[in-house]
Design a protein that fits this description.
It is a single chain. This protein is 51% helix and 4% strand. By secondary structure, the protein is mainly alpha-helical. The chain has a two-stranded antiparallel ribbon. The mean pLDDT is 88.
Length: 225
């Protein structure tokens, strides 16, 4: 594309004759579309329920999984979160493109439980870091640590082998579920912090035909007269 644009510019400006344009017969290649398999609703429920202990690490891990599925946040955005980023009705994402993301009542309840336990844990394990989700030693978590939490849960609850278990797949799942549930593309793009809506459109590729048909039936003009 770059070379075609360059040679066309030379022709348009008179530096090159049209017949001498080496890019004239070069065809544009169609980029293959990669469809990412996402978690099913049943798999999401099983993963969230897997960490059901009452100790700090289990509650932390469960809260992390719920937050990733409920907000579509990037892993690094979550890692850098601080307690004051949690507002009454939303979460403030300050790192990267600043934005607000909503939190469901279920996530709000879990965050209250986690923050109470976190305060007690940090009294016994003081740290100079302010991250909402500290590691066992009180240091900030890493992308790899979050990925291990997800992979361990996914393996134990039998997530399909076709799903690439990672924080990014949680983000894809969030986007597709929001779109299938009727949220418009522009709003999903805003929630995910995308630079433009073209990036968000890629998430539409993974939505199955049956989901489109089911959604189309619900929004049928005749059924909504």
């Amino acid at each position: 594309k770059v070379w075609r644009t360059w040679f066309n510019y030379l022709v348009n400006e008179g530096y090159l004759e049209e017949r001498d344009n080496p890019a004239k017969k070069v065809k544009c290649l169609r980029q293959p579309r990669t469809i990412i398999d996402t978690f099913t609703v049943a798999e999401m429920k099983r993963m969230i329920q897997f960490y059901d202990g009452k100790d700090f690490l289990d509650v932390r891990n469960k809260t992390i999984i719920m937050l990733l599925f409920d907000t579509g946040m990037r892993c690094n955005e979550m890692i850098l979160m601080e307690p004051e980023d949690i507002k009454q009705d939303y979460i403030l994402v300050k790192h990267g493109k600043e934005r607000v993301v909503p939190k469901s009542p279920a996530l709000s309840k879990q965050l209250v439980k986690y923050c109470t336990l976190r305060d007690g844990y940090l009294k016994e394990h003081p740290t100079r870091y302010k991250n909402l989700f500290p590691s066992k030693t009180g240091k900030p978590m890493t992308d790899e640590a979050v990925a291990r939490i997800l992979k361990h849960a996914a393996k134990e609850v039998g997530v399909s082998s076709s799903v690439r278990v990672s924080p990014l797949t949680c983000r894809h799942t969030f986007a597709q579920m929001q779109l299938k549930n009727g949220l418009d593309l522009y709003s999903v793009s805003r929630l995910m912090g995308h630079v433009n809506i073209m990036i968000t459109q890629r998430y539409l590729l993974g939505i199955k035909d049956k989901d489109i048909v089911d959604r189309g039936t619900q929004t049928s003009p005749l059924m909504n007269l």
